[in-house]
Design brief:
Shape: globular
Strand order of the largest sheet: 5-4-6-7-10
Radius of gyration: 20 Å
Mean pLDDT: 92
Strand content: 15-25%
Largest sheet: 5 strands, parallel
Helix content: 25-40%
Low-confidence stretches: 1-13
CATH architecture of the largest domain: 3-Layer(aba) Sandwich
CATH superfamily of the largest domain: NAD(P)-binding Rossmann-like Domain
Number of domains: 2
CATH class of the largest domain: Alpha Beta
Number of helices: 10
CATH topology of the largest domain: Rossmann fold
Length: about 300
């Protein structure tokens, strides 16, 4: 049976899940605890590694640095030439792993084609994996240890929680099964008790699944892929896609959802830009806080970051 795309009442239209207020709330909470940790001699410090001249990575780094400052977290950027070898980058990561003054390591994407992002990410010590991309961090989600997870995936789930919908038993469809977004979202939601269906390019009918879902996440990278006929009236729609398209002679940033028609029937929807993006960076800072806490517990009073200055 096909559900008709009946518009929801006008007064409920555009129930936007805006990211900035959520991000600000998370940053304020992180700052308070980061201050307490610093007073206890365990200051949080992040080091970002960028390999090559990548404009999009430079934008991410600036955003991360600004957000870290707001959260009371030290942030250092290190740049390597595009010709840097795997050995050189791995040596730098190993040095950061053993430096007690550094509590978190970020590897900016993309990396040059001769390097393996998986190899580099796996080289980061699990206790300093603030991106949540080490195999250990991914594996922890399976065992319902949700303290640290991939930032975009965690941010997307955080926005769903803000709807007030009960996650236990919620019917959720995730469109897209990438290793850093789609799959981690599915694992996070299953850990919360949701019933999750993951759709991908081999799924026979994505619309058949999405039309029956209480919440739909989409992270594919195809503008306006999800239309109103694919969404159940009143459902929550979390759009993670970021696409550059030309509209009326200008370049615009749009998501994977055909926003205006879908917003007319969805109960909640994230805008693009301004939805998942701002929350993602705040989750990075929250991960950094959890990582510093874990290191403090692990190493005890053997040393503090203050003593190593």
């Amino acid at each position: 049976m096909t559900l008709a795309a009946v518009p929801i009442p006008r007064e409920r239209r555009h129930n936007l899940l805006r990211g900035k207020p959520v991000a600000a709330e998370i940053i304020d909470a992180v700052k308070a605890e980061a201050t307490d940790l610093a007073e206890a001699g365990w200051a949080i410090k992040l080091v970002s590694l960028t390999i090559g001249e990548v404009p999009e990575a430079a934008l991410y780094v600036r955003n991360q640095a600004r957000t870290a400052e707001k959260a009371g977290i030290a942030f250092e950027e290190r740049n390597f030439p595009a010709t840097a070898t795997a050995g050189e980058i791995l040596a730098s990561i190993n040095s950061l792993n053993t430096d007690p003054r550094v509590t978190g390591i970020i590897i900016q994407r993309p990396v040059p084609s001769h390097l393996s992002i998986r190899e580099l990410q796996s080289a980061v010590h699990p206790l300093k994996d603030v991106e949540g991309m080490h195999p250990t961090s991914i594996g922890n989600i399976v065992y319902r240890d949700l303290a640290i997870a991939p930032c975009t995936a965690m941010a997307s789930v955080e926005l769903l929680k803000r709807t007030g919908l009960k996650l236990q038993g919620l019917e959720v469809v995730v469109i897209g099964h990438s290793a850093i977004v789609g799959k981690p979202i599915a694992f996070l939601l299953m850990a919360e008790g949701a019933t999750v269906t993951v759709c991908h390019h081999m799924t026979r009918s994505v619309a058949m699944h999405s039309r029956s879902a209480d919440a739909v996440f989409v992270a594919v990278g195809k503008p306006k892929l999800v239309t109103e006929s694919m969404i159940k009236p009143g459902a929550a729609v979390i759009d993670i896609g970021i696409n550059q398209v030309e509209e009326n002679g200008k370049v615009a940033t749009v998501g994977d959802v055909d926003f205006d028609p879908v917003a007319d029937i969805a109960g909640w929807i994230t805008p693009v830009p301004g939805g998942v993006g701002p929350v993602t960076v705040s989750i990075l800072m929250r991960n950094a806080l959890h990582a510093a806490r874990a290191q403090k517990r692990h190493y005890g009073s053997a040393f503090s970051t203050e003593e190593m200055k």
